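Predict structure. Chain length: 379.
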Amino acid sequence: MAAMEKPDFDLLLEKYRKGECTPQELDFIGSWYLQYQKDAEPLSQAELETEVARMTENIALKIAPPTNQTPLFRRLRLPLGIAASILVIFSIGYLLLPARRKEPEIARQQQAISPGRQAASLTLANGKKIFLSDQQAGQVVQEAGLSISKTSNGELVYEVMGSKDQAHGFHTLTTSNGETYRVRLPDGSTVWLNAASSLKYPVSFKNSSTRIVQLSGEAYFEIYKDRRHAFIVRSRGQEVEVLGTHFNINAYHDETGIKTTLLEGSVRLKSERGASRMLKPGQQAELTDGKIKILPADTRSVTAWKDGYFRFRNESLKSVMRKISRWYNVEVVFEKGLPEDTYSGAVARHDNLSQILEIMEGSNNIHFSIKGRRIIVSK
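Prediction complete.
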């Protein structure tokens, strides 16, 4: 893989205005924009060119052939933790790198709302609830034929022990707003659970012809391949059947439809009204009112949440704020007369909410006010 060559900055901006930038060029502009925002004074054209040259030398941005299955941020290797900071270009048809503006209202309020965290509750078959953030790494549950442990990086791991199937019943893993968690199921499949979601599953898949789980909210699945035992995910109004594959399901109740996105393998989707479709990698099925529509998928945007980012592509303000609301556990109130613009860009999920809102304010004629855990959006 070759490093990105020194760009012609004027040409790069012109390509962005025309919508012709490659993903790597967009990453470069986003990284430069972040540093520019932190400068105390506006830069002259000569200073801009110097900054671009310096960043080109310092940022080891590796260019690989684009693939739908590789999250964009895994290709970034930025110094001083820039890759872990906000990398945002909220655009409305073209790029505008703003001149130094007045301090936005959101920054003056100085009310930091922290991001979500790795946490969840586990409800056992007997009804006992365990708050996993309170548990140390090591064994969490020991039952007949079953051991559940928590790894040092926070993954919940199931292990069914013994030749006989002594483990019975169902467990439910639940995240609240502002929480996310990962679990390795008894069959070896791994599930990432997004905020405000729950997954119900049997404590053992032995002696069962199928592996059935129930999802509410959003989750990303990497299913252990077992041709003899299909893996079935039931969610609001649909059923997804797989053998071994990687896919994401967004089934939040406050979204208009259910979106199933396939990254690898194949899945069959069935609606409760009897409609049935097969998905290929890179496709997304949207189920609305019992009807299934198949569209090309932006898999990087769909799965960015599990890698620690929000990634938006031509999304409405309300769609963006729904995602932010779940992760930061805030209520969002929209005043009337807001512009019907769409937003594109990427945001690190571990930053304080005020940092994100500040950049959104600078991208368009909208304003945010923070009152406790309520965000008011106005013109």
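Summary: Confidence is low (pLDDT under 50) at residues 1-6, 34-45, 54-103.
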